[in-house]
Amino acid sequence: MPSPSTAGAVSNRTPKRDYLSAGYTVRSWLLTTDHKRIAILYLLSITLFFVIGGLAATVVRLDLMTPQADLVETETFNKLFTAHGVIMVFFFLIPSIPAVLGNFIVPLMLGARDLAFPRLNLLSWYVYVLGGLFTVYALLAGGVDTGWTFYAPYSSTYSNTYVMATAVGIFITGFSSILTGLNFIVTIHKMRAPGLTWFRLPLFIWSIYATSIIMVLGTPVLAISLFLVGMERLLGIGIFDPRLGGDPILFQHLFWFYSHPAVYIMILPSMGVVSEIIPCFCRKRPFGYSFIGFSSFAIAVFSFLVWGHHLFVSGQSIYAGMVFSILSYLVAIPSAVKVFNWTASLHKGSISFETPMLYALGFVGLFTMGGLTGLFVAALAVDVHVHDTYFIVAHFHYIMVGGAVMGYLGGIHFWWPKMTGRLYPEGWARFSAILIFVGFNLTFFPQYILGYLGMPRRYHVYPEEFQVLNVMSSAGASILGLGYFFPLTYLIWSLMYGKIASPNPWRAAGLEWQTTSPPPTDNFAETPVVVDEAYDYQHIDGVSPAGGAT
User: Fold this and answer.
1) pLDDT at 16
2) pLDDT in tens, 159-178
3) What angle do CA 292, 298, 299 make, to 5 degrees?
4) How far apart are CA 166 and CA 158, in angstroms?
5) How far apart are CA 483 and CA 471, in angstroms?
6) What confidence tier does 542 reach under pLDDT thresholds 50, 70, 90?
7) Of 74, 82, 75, 91, whose CA–CA distance to 56 is shortest?
8) SS3 for 550?
């Protein structure tokens, strides 16, 4: 039934045909300016990169099952973990939710016909693909062995691999992020439906807005860093190489000034997804709506102030280290606010465990584990011990895979009926969500122990006493990989054989559920008008605040 926040928003007029049937030719897709079709193009692209990055990780985990270099040579191993990191970070995690779910859902949530700059939106996808082609070329031509962090002066002077082709690919793709962020900011400011004030906005919009600010302000710093690497590598200008009068620590400052905020580019949209799913499946307005919204902005601000905790062992001033340590603890506060508010939202809720809810609960658990271990590495004394060990690998993946990917999959399952007009098999989807949760913990929890015991990351030859934990991790990776394979199969199956979805199969609040599934090309038959607060599930379910029927 219509959300109270969109009363009168649905017209009796017959809407235009849906966006999927607006044209079937390749040309109609490649030249489209429809935000929904561009989201599908992004979905196909990032899925391909996810598969490539996942295959690289598979070979890495297979090689680590034995203490000696039995599967690949050291040089190949270095190229494999670099390929995994570069592809997963820059071509999957960063664009996944903003480019796919954000592109598709943001205009629908705002009651808009499209994003503010439709042609710019299409350009952002072409720029993303162009950058990806450069990087794939580098991988096929021989790969790059610098790690995804491109630390100088190795990347700028000494590496003999395809550093520049990879850097150019990432440099180009950064413009895609900037264009997408600008588009979202303008759209959210200027194209909200009548009555949709800031404090009636869905929390997903708050998170996308905060993410867009980081994209626009942070991405140019990465571009500058890679440009300077190229200047030193091609022209011999001394910027990072001490032999040429440069400073290698300068690169770390520049790189992490972007790359730590980039962590929140990856995780903030997932937080927004969870903030949509939990209220829907516990049938309650989220506890502390304004606190959840403002915490997104607090995270965006603090994310630019904590980069120095990556340099605790670099020789920086102990006083600088103490300041960055304190700031790193402060940035945990708004994240904790979200976790506590999600938990409070569940209290006395009418909880149902559909697939999106399983992913949302998995996100909360895994992100909390990653966040708590982040407090450990924010402490100078602990970080000195676990720096560049598998403890850091586990912490990063609990945030990025346990957090960002779980949120992405939760969002895909939540809005899949809206995107395609089809329902997926719920039983298989629940089984896959549970399998991913189990496989993830079996993969990465042993790595906490490995790191604490002192196994360095990026090594594939290690003492025999670490083999049991590495075998456990590799076994978990096989379960995790199977869990990721199932959604790929049953979601494709649902496109042909899934049941037809109603406009609002979850009985969810929000403007996006007040149009057809899939939506028409123009999204709405007429511009919706918002008259009430967001997430009023008591009204939707016909229950008064006192518990009686209305």
Assistant:
1) 54
2) 999 999 999 999 999 999 99
3) 90
4) 15
5) 18
6) low
7) 82
8) coil
204/211 Cα distance (integer angstroms)? 10
Question: 291-347: per-residue pLDDT in tens?
Answer: 999 999 999 999 999 999 999 999 999 999 999 999 999 999 999 999 999 999 999
φ and ψ at residue 464, rounded to 5 degrees = -60, -30
Beta-bridge partners for 422: 500
User: 370: closest CA among 444, 294, 455, 473?
Assistant: 444
How far is Cα 274 from Cα 314, in angstroms, rounded to an integer?
37
* Superfamily of structural domain 36-534: Cytochrome c oxidase-like, subunit I domain (1.20.210.10)
Decide: helix, strand or coil at residue 369: helix
Which token pair is 23? 């044209």
pLDDT of residue 540: 76
CA distance 112 to 515: 12
- Residue 500's φ and ψ, nearest 5 degrees, are -70, 130
How are the residues of the chain apportioned to helix, strand and coil, as percentages rounded to the nearest 5?
A: 70, 0, 30
Q: Tokens representing 384?
A: 């000195």
Both structure tokens of 383 = 């970080």
Query: Could you tell me the residue ranges of all domains in the chain?
Result: 36-534
The answer to whether residues 112 and 187 touch, using CB atoms and an 8 Å cutoff, is yes
Q: Residue 146's CB: how many other CB atoms inside 10 A? A: 23
Report the SS3 class of residue 549. Answer: strand
How many CA atoms does the CB half-sphere of 128 hold within 13 Å? 31
Amino acid identity for residue 165 in this structure: A
- The C-alpha atoms of residue 522 and residue 528 are separated, in whole angstroms, by 12
Six-digit token string for 506: 């979850």
d(CA 95, CA 92): 6
Q: What is the mean pLDDT of the chain?
A: 92
Q: Kindly report the CA angle at 197 between 196 and 200, in degrees rounded to 5?
A: 75
